[in-house]
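Session log. Operator J.P. requested a structure for one protein chain; no other inputs attached. Running the standard single-chain path with C-alpha cell output.
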Amino acid sequence: MKLKRNIIFTILLGAGMTAAYLPAMAMVDMENVQSAQQSIDEVKLRELQDFRKKYKLSEPKASNNELKSAQMALKMLMLQRTGDYTVTGADLWGDKVTNQHLRDVAKNVRILSYGALTLGKSGKADLDLYLDFLFTHNFFMRMPKLVYSNYSDVRKIPTDLMSALPVLDDVRKAKVIAAVQKLLEVDIIRKGDKAILNWISSDYIFNVVPYVFNLAIANPDDQQAIQDLQLLSGFLRVCTRYNVGNKDILKPDGTGFHHNAHYNGYMYSYRTWVEYFYRFKGTSLKIDKKSYERLKKAIVTIYMTAVCADGDKDRIYATSMAGRHPFYSTEVPFTQKLFEQLIEIGGEAMGTDLDMDLAAYYNYFFKTNKYSVPAIDANGFYQYNYSSAGVYRQPGWVAVMKAPTAKLWGAEIYNKTNRFGRYQSHGTLEVLYEGGLENSGYPSKTENKAAGWDWNMMPGSTTVHYTDWAEMMPYKNDKDRFDQKARTSDFAGAVSNNEYGLFASAFDQDDNWGSQRFVPTNLTFCKSVLAIDGMLFSIGNGISAKGDYSDKMITATNLFQTITSKKFNRLSVNGKNVGSGNKLTIPSAEALTVINPVSTGYFVPAGHDEITIVYDKQETPSSEGLAAKPATEVAAKAYINHGVKPEKKSYSFVVVPAADEDKMKEVADKQTKGELFSIVEMQDSLHIIKYAPKNVLAYSFFTPAKGLNAGEVISSATELLLIEEKQSDGSLVLAISNPNLRPKMLNKKDWREMPTPAFIELKGTWEAEGNVQGVFLKTMENGNTELSCLLRNGLPVHVKLKKM
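Structure written below.
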C-alpha cells in the first residue's frame, strides 16, 4: 500500500517540479519508490535467470546427409555478403511466400544450425550467411500466418527456426525471435482484455503458448524478456474469463468450447494452462485466485463428465461428448500429475500449502487417499447447459444425457472422420461404467475406429434408421463436413437439485450445413429424463418423421446397444437368458424387463410400440467411411419401433444401471403398481413426471403453461425446467433453470447468451427461508404467490419456501 500511495503522490506532484522545491518528506518517498522499483526489477531479473537455467532450449538436430545436402544447396545460391548483416542473392520466393516455402526455409535453418553447433566457425558462417540472406530479402516480413489448427506446421516450423537460437549472436537471435513472434501472432498477448477474449483460441493456448514462453526467455534483451513473460502470464489469466457465447473457451458452467460448442477432446489446452502456471508458481507471474477458481472449475467439470479411475487410463467420457472421435480419444485429456500440480498452484493462490478442496476431488476421481482429506462425495446430478447435457453420477457409473440445439451441435463430421456420427447425441442416455470402453459395451478395438457398431443406435436416442450407410453420410461421401444441430430449437439441457435432476430436449432435425446435405427426415421429438435414487425414468412424445426417404427406414427410440465380449455376454429378457443368434419381438401388450450384457437394466411398461431385441453378429463400416475396412462385432441391442414415418408417437421406460434380476423385479413390480414414477402430463408443450417415494414433481416447460394442478406450481410464463419437492414439514424446495440460452446473434456467426426473466405462480402464500439473492416473492390478488428471478447462463436457482 505504501508503494502505491507514493507512486500516486509522485504522479500528482507533476513532472515539472524540480527536486529543489520538493519537501523533504517527498524526497524520502521518491527514494523509497526508486528503491522499491529497483528491488522489484531485481526480483524479476532473478526469476528470468532462473527460468533460463531451468528451461534450456533444445539444441538443433540433423543427420550428416542432411547437412551435406544443405551445404551444397547453399553454395549453389551463390550468395555474396555486402555488409555485416546483409547478403545479396536471387529472390527465390516470387511475389508470395507460401507455407511450403516456410517449411523448406525452416528445415534449412535447423540443418545449418546443427552445422554451426558441430562444425564450429565454418558452420556458423554458413548459418549466418543464410539467415542474413533471408533478412535482406525480407522473407519473414512476407511469410503467411500459421493456422493454429494445422498442428503439424504450427509445431514444426517454429521449432526448426528456433533451433538456431542457441548458436546465434544477439543481433541475429533478436531478429529470429521477432520473426517467429510474427509468425505465431505473439502480438495478441499485448492486446487488451476485450480483444483477447474476442479472439481467444484453445488451439493457440495449446500449440503456441510454449513457444511464447521459450521466445521470451531466449530474448537477449532482459527487459523485453521480462515484459513478454508478464504479458504471457496476463494473457493466460485473461483467457480463464468466461465467454458467454459460442467463442472459445471457458463457460460459466465449467464446460470448455472449441469449434463453437462444448468439446472435451480439445480441452488438452488445459494441460498447457496448468503446466505454465506451475512454472510461474512462486514468482511474480503466479496465478491470481479468481483465475485459479475458474481454471479449477473447468478441470473439475471435465472429470465430472467421465468415470472414475485409479489413473489416467480408461477415464472415459460419453460418446455424445466426443466431437468427431466416437469411441476413441474419449479419455479425459488431462493427467494425474497435472492435477497434483494444480492442487499446489491452488494452495499458493489461496495462501495455503495445498487446495484441500481440490485434493478432496482428487481422492474421489482417482479412488485414492493420497491427500489427508476425505474424498468428496461427488455423487449426484450435474447440469451443463452450455453442453445441452445432464450428468448423473453414482458409485461405479455415470449416466450422460445430451441433445443438440440450433446453436450447439451434437456431432461433428469431418473428412474421413466420424462419417456416420449424425445420431451421436440425438437425445441420448448413455451409461458408462468404470474400467473403459469394453465395460461400457462400446467398441474397444480402437484400431477399428468403431467398425462393427450400428451407427443408427446410440443408447437412449430417437432416430430414423438408415438402411444404406452411404445415405447416412453428408452428400453420401467420405469427405464433406457436417455439424449436426437442431433446426430451430434451442431447448436442451438440465436442472440439478443436487442429489437428483431433470434433463429435457425439444428437437427438430436439421439436414443443412450451408446447404442441404441429407435427404430430410423432418424428425421431431420431446423427451425428458428424471434421474433419482440410482434410476432414470425416460419419457418422450411428439415423435414424428416424414419425407422422401425410403419406406424401409423405421423411426425408433433405441434402448441400448452393447458390443459383447468374453467378459460381458449375458443378455437377460424377462428373466431368461437369450443366446447369440436370436431376434425377439415384444408386442405392445407385454411389459419388458431386460438386462443388457454390461448390467444396465430396462423396464418398459405395457402399452409401448413394438420392441425389437437382437443378439447377433453385425458388420458395419468404421467411422472413417465406406472406403475404410468394415468389421464384424457381436452386439446385443434393443429398440422401440415407432414405425415408418410415424406421427406423434410416445414412449416411457426406466433405466437401472448396475442391475441384477432381483433389482429389476423390484423396480418392475413397484413401477407397475405406481409406486415409483408416473407421467402426470406428456404434451408437446409440457412434461410432468412424479416420483412418489420423495414426493418430487419434475416439470419440463417446453413453452409457457398455466392452469396446472399437479402440485404447488400453477404456471410458468416462460420455457424452463423446474423441480419441486414437498418435504415432510410442509416446506417446498424448488430448483429452476432454463437450458435455452436464448442465443442472440451478434453477426452471421457469433452469438451470446441472453438471460431469461422467469415468473412462476405457486398455489397459496409462501415465503423464502433465508435471503435468496435474485429471487423475489410477491402475493398476487388471487392469494397465490408469484416467484420471479433472472435465469442466466443455464445455471440453476435453488430456493426453499415455507407456507405463510
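Operator note: The chain has four domains: 2-41, 64-383, 422-467+497-672, 678-804.
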